[in-house]
Automatic annotation (TrEMBL):
Keyword Metal-binding appears in the UniProt entry: no
Catalytic activity, reaction form: a quinone + NADH + 5 H(+)(in) = a quinol + NAD(+) + 4 H(+)(out)
Protein name as it appears in the record: NADH-quinone oxidoreductase subunit H
Cellular component, GO annotation: plasma membrane
Subcellular location field: Cell membrane; Membrane
């Protein structure tokens, strides 16, 4: 029994890891295609039909490029920085429920790597660790622009993690649980999606997710016009690729979290009225979940090619003077509504 469970979890971990890398890899192509479409030009279209082999060419370029470590860099930490960023990005998805159970023979297989009753706290812990990869890499590079980018990343992460956490407190007041599996299960039925009861919380969470992923208009740690390339300016070869991949993986995981917390996760309208077997419902649920995720990824890209970058003072003002007070007000409002509902209804 234990060996079968271990095999199931191993297969699921490998599948989630492979899908995550595949989506991160092809997000680089889709981003350039979206940019080309929005700027009335062609994106990459030379490598394979419609450029679909471009990510493989980019990967080959990163593998075979010369690896350069600056003479004044701290070698161990210089190598550890991108490794930490990539590792923390990959393990965040361990608590995300990708679908309902599959029935295979006499076994019920859960499509979640692990279901812990404090899954939301686990995600916060891992996200908080992710900034260390940037900080270590920026400091170990022995470059003033890298260090400045790393300091920006750290202060930005601290500022927006507060708003991110406060936005979720109101959601936890509504759901009454920290388990992602239970939160998604409670959203069965289109009218039960959390976006209808926490629209302000979702808006705050989404803005903070952009900042946590260092995406435009919050890409101040990489700001090319000021810092050349930011914390990764001294990196080349696969170390630079790890930082880039970590950003796209974080974007994928953030999209999955927004879909799971506020848009029903694998739930979709009329799923129980179709009269299908459990396995078919599960498969359709997984497809619906990934459609929601891809829609959010497209939104990330659309924003990048639509809005200009904030100034650093604007970024800090938005985090501390707007988002945090809004999140606190949302908590108070949610508490008042909950008390009224429990008292009179």
């Amino acid at each position: 029994m234990e060996s079968a469970l271990l095999l199931e979890k191993t297969i699921l971990v490998v599948a989630v890891f492979a899908i995550t890398l595949f989506i991160a890899m092809y997000s680089t192509l889709v981003e350039r295609k979206v940019a080309g479409f929005m700027q009335a030009r062609f994106g990459p279209d030379r490598a394979g039909p419609f450029g679909i082999l471009q990510p493989l060419c980019d990967g080959g370029k990163f593998f075979f490029k010369e690896e350069i470590i600056p003479a004044g860099a701290h070698k161990f930490l210089f190598i550890a920085g991108p490794a930490v960023a990539m590792f923390t990005a990959c393990i965040t998805s361990a608590v995300i429920p990708w679908g309902q159970e599959l029935v295979i023979g006499d076994r019920v297989v859960s499509l979640q790597v692990t279901d812990i009753n404090v899954g939301v706290l686990y995600i916060f812990g891992v996200v908080a660790l992710g900034v260390y990869g940037i900080m270590i890499g920026g400091w170990a590079s022995n470059n003033k622009y890298s260090l400045m980018g790393a300091v920006r990343a750290a202060s930005q992460s601290i500022s927006y993690e507060i708003g991110l956490g406060l936005s979720l407190i109101a959601l936890l007041m509504v759901t009454g649980t920290l388990s992602l599996k239970e939160i998604v299960a409670q959203q069965e039925g289109f009218v039960n999606w959390n976006i209808w009861v926490q629209p302000l919380g979702f808006l705050i969470f989404m803005v903070c997710a952009f900042a946590e992923c260092n995406r435009v208009p919050f890409d101040l740690p990489e700001c090319e016009t000021e810092l050349i390339g930011g914390y990764n300016v001294e990196y080349s070869s696969m170390k630079l690729a790890f930082y880039m991949f970590a950003e796209y993986i974080n974007m994928f995981v953030s999209s999955a979290l927004m879909a799971a917390l506020y848009f029903g996760g694998y739930n979709f309208p009329f799923m129980n009225e179709l009269g299908l077997s459990q396995n078919w419902i599960t498969i359709l649920g997984v497809i619906a979940f990934f459609i929601k995720i891809l829609a959010f990824i497209f939104f990330f890209m659309w924003i990048r090619w639509t809005l200009p970058r904030f100034r650093y003072d604007q970024l800090m003002r938005l985090g501390w003077k707007i988002l945090i007070p809004l999140a606190v007000a949302n908590i108070v409002l949610t508490g008042i509504v909950t008390i009224i509902k429990d008292t009179y209804f």
